[in-house]
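Consider today's protein:

***
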Amino acid sequence: MPAWLKLAYRMGKVGAIKLAMGYTMVLQGGLFFVTEPGNVVLFWSYTFLAGLAFGATPTLLHSMMADLTDIDELKTGQKRAGMYFALLATINKLGGAVAVGVTLTAADKLFNFTPGAANSQAAIDGLLLIFCFAPAAALALTYLPLFRYPLTKERHAEIRRSLSAEQ
């Protein structure tokens, strides 16, 4: 995390989160092409590489949300950070639940995968396909709004100055 925070300081939060998300998309999708049953070295290598960016997105997203609450306070005069962070936490929890439900339902309906049962190779390959590409696709969708994200480090500094002047 310290490296991601330093990177965010240098290139901005949006640049750092885009880098972390892009890295994760490539890593997650690329796993499909290199995975093989029983390869413990690959498993631990993937786990280590995935861990490099694992905390970057949530941490940077929370930091960006804090910046957005400053915009809201400037516009409304109200301090509603708690509401924003509660909404973010709720969305994160719903996203996790939906991801599990959609993944297992898709694996069942598309590939006849049954958790805890002896599955065919086609079912296992289908689960791998979903495991590798569904998260990458979801990240790609969340990546798109970042291209037009308007809050730069300089703009946020202006907002903070305006809020300080009002107090």
